[in-house]
Amino acid sequence: MTAETATQTGSETEAQDHAKASTEDQTDTTESTGAENVADTDAVEESAEDVADDQDDDEDDDEDDEDRLVEEGEIAGDYLEQLLDVLDFDGDIDLDVDGDRAVVSIDGGDDLTKLVGRKGEVLDALQELTRLAVQQATGERSRLMLDVARWRADRRDRLARLGREVAERVLKSGEREALDPMTPFERKIVHDAVAGVDGVVSESEGAEPKRRVVVLPE
Which entry of 9, 70, 186, 187 is 20 to 30 Å from 27 by CA? Predict the structure, then answer.
């Protein structure tokens, strides 16, 4: 073999080695890229699964809260039914859930106004007794709302209407106006009604039990 032939053969061998190394590099790169893509896909899938799990947890929590409120209503309904029997009052008990609290309503009897009392004082006391009965059964403090003969529902409508009327007067006159003292429940109704009128605001002032709503120009 001549020197020229040996040199040429060596060059060809080097070229083949270089091509083989290049092919191996490309294979490694492809495998590495593929592994990274698989890892990215797995990460996306895991993230999607985490979001789905969080959503499922939220839905489970909502269902648990609603089940708890339904249970509170049923316990309250049983307690009030026994109370009506003892008092010999007629009335239909309706159970519902409003937001984050159970709602129990008693309607239908002619004597039910006696369970309301002056300015709802008897109703407030009965509501507290019912909450205590629920707490005794569940071990947790209840925010249950009790209504009798639609007293609270009608009161809510009247207060919402009052809040809007006062807000309109203040908007026209530019003068602040204070309302009569109210319970926290009643003040919230008025605040919500005033918030629906642009150009005025409301705030509470004073100490319980004489705390009241004041409506002012914005």
Answer: 9
